[in-house]
Amino acid sequence: MSKNIFIIFFAILTILACASVKTQNTAIKTAQGIDGYVYKTSGNLMPMPGRASPKPSGISTTIFIYEMTNIKDVVRVDNSPSYTAIHKKLITTTQSDSTGHFNIQLPAGDYSLFTKKDQLFYANLFDSENNIAAVKVETGTITKTVIKVDAGATY
Length: 155
Prior knowledge:
This protein is an alpha+beta fold. It is 17% helix and 44% strand.
């Protein structure tokens, strides 16, 4: 009887030891994706002597993550940073919290980030090849980014 209890105890101990090793191994995996903030700025932001620039405030919003999107892949509203349609594949969406922070795991690749106000997509950054709000995720890294929604700002 005591021999059976010893065997059962040893088996349980072995299973628990293997389970903890499995947990440790999954924790070692490298995270990759995007970590960032969405800030809203508005009003008169013209530099003036004796006046500090107002701090942008973080906003809770949905971030739309598309395949790398070029200006030729969108339907643009005049020359604004607003778009009625994006003709690239939507990869995923994520939500920023009340401070504007968001974090999302993504495979390595090149992406474009948009927010949305009413029915219009918004992104105001372009690279030298006219890619919109480009973010590169490399294997095993977290890419840091800031999205500034400044449609109501004057510079």
